[in-house]
Amino acid sequence: MDPSQAARAIRGGDRRVMARVITKLESTLDADYVEGQAVLESLIAESGNAIRVGVTGPPGVGKSTFIEALGLHLVEQGKRVAVLAVDPSSPVTGGSILGDKTRMERLAVRPEAFIRPSPSGGSLGGVAHRTREVMLLCEAAGYDIVLIETVGIGQSEVAVASMVDFFLVLLLPAGGDELQGIKKGVVELADALVVNKADGEMVSTADRTRADYASALDLIRALNDEWRPRALVASALETRGIVEAWDAVMEHHELMHRSGHFDERRRGQARAWLWKLVDEGVARAFREGSGMKDAIAREEEAVAAQKTTPAAAARTLLAAFEARRR
Ligand SMILES: Nc1nc2c(ncn2[C@@H]2O[C@H](COP(=O)(O)OP(=O)(O)OP(=O)(O)O)[C@@H](O)[C@H]2O)c(=O)[nH]1
Ligand SMILES: [Mg+2]
After folding, report:
1. Total count of domains within the chain
2. Is the Cβ atom of 96 under 6 angstroms away from ligand 1?
C-alpha cells in the first residue's frame, strides 16, 4: 500500500481503503502497523475537526440504541458520523464485554455513517490506543462527529474520557433515591448524565432518578466553572431526549470554544497520549533489554525474600539499564 495514495483515497471518502488502513492500524504485526501509521502520519494535519463524544454506561443500559438514534438524528442534519467502540476483553471470559446484539442496522446502511466495532483482543491500553488512531483517520476522512461507545466498568471509561470532547454517561432509572450502579469517579468525568429507558412504566421513576442525579451533580465540583454537567432523561428506543442530549453537547462545544478550554483540553489530551506512548516504549525497552530479564528476575526474587528493599532493587535495575545504554 502506497501511503500517499491511500491517504488520497481516504480523503476522497473511499471506505474500502479506510477499512483496510484501519485493519493495518489494528494489526498486531509490526509491519502492518507501521504501514497503517505511515498513512495516518500523512493525514494527521487534516485530523481534529470532528466533535468527539464518548458514550458510556453499564451493560444493557442502551448505549448502542442511543448512539444509533443520535447518529440517525445527526445524519438527518446532513452530518457525517463515525461510530467506534472501546471494548476491553473480559478478564473472566476472554470475550468482549459490549454485546454484539445491537449492530445499529438502521444507521449502518446510511452512506453518511461509518461504524467500526472494537478491535478484538489485546489489553485495554492497546484497544484504546488503536481507537484513538482510528478516530483521527475518521476525522481526516471528513466525518463531522465521532461517537465512541464503551462499557462503564473498569478503566475503559477513563481511557475514552481522555480522548473525547464530551463524555456522556447513560444510566438506568433507579427505584427510590438510591443512585445505583454508578461509581463516583465516572460521575466526575461526565459532562452529562442521561437516564435512559424513560418510557412505559418507567417514565416517572426516570424523572425522579434524573432529579436525584441532578442534586448529586450539584455536590460535585464541576471540572471547570463554565460548564455544569447536566442530568437528562431519554428513551433511546422511542427516540426521545436525543435532541436535548445533542443540544447539551453543542452548548458545551460553543462554550469551550469561546473560553479557549476546547483547545486546551485537546492539547492536554494529545500531550498525555504522547507521554503514555513514551512511557510504554521505555518500559518495553527496559524489560526486553539484553541482560535485563535475568537482572529483573534476580531483583524480584530478592525483594520477595525481603533480602532487599523495593527501592534498592529498583535502583539496581535502573543502574543496570543505564549501564547497558552507554
Ligand atoms: N425500554 C427501553 N429499552 C431500551 C432503550 N434503549 C435500549 N433498550 C433495550 O435495552 C437492550 C440493550 O440495549 P443496547 O443498546 O444493546 O444496550 P448497550 O448499553 O449498548 O448494551 P451493551 O453494549 O451490551 O453494554 C435492548 O434490548 C434495547 O432494545 C430504551 O430507551 N427503552
Ligand atoms: Mg452496545
Report:
1. 3
2. no
C-alpha cell at 318: 535502573
Q: What's the residue count for the chain?
A: 326
Return d(Cα 174, Cα 242) in angstroms, integer: 20
Mark residue 121 as left, alpha or beta (left: phi above 0; alpha: psi -120 to 50; beta: remaining): left
What pLDDT, on a 0 to 100 scale, did the predictor assign at position 222? 56
Q: Please give the residue range of the domain that contains residue 137.
A: 47-258
Over residues 109-141, the pLDDT tens digits come to 999 999 988 776 666 667 788 899 999 999 999
Strand order in the sheet with 51-56: 113-116, 81-86, 145-150, 51-56, 166-171, 192-195, 230-233
Q: If you ran DSSP here, which 8-state letter would residue 96 be given?
A: B
| Residue 286 near residue 292 (C-beta atoms within 8 A) | yes
Per-residue model confidence (pLDDT) at position 179: 59
Q: Report CA torsion sign: 118, 122, 124, 125.
A: negative
Whether residues 193 and 207 share a domain: the answer is yes
Tell which atom from ligand 1 comes closest to the C-alpha of 101: 16
- 176 CB neighbour count, 10 Å cutoff: 10
Query: 156-177: per-residue pLDDT in tens?
Result: 888 889 999 999 999 999 854 4
Looking at the structure, do residues 145 and 41 belong to the same domain, yes or no?
Answer: no
Is 151 among the domain residues?
Answer: yes
CA of 103 to the centre of ligand 2 (A): 8
65 lines ligand 1 (CB under 6 A): yes
Together in a domain, 156 and 218: yes
Which residues, given as ranges, of the chain have pLDDT below 70? 89-102, 120-125, 153-154, 175-184, 221-225
pTM for the full predicted model: 0.90
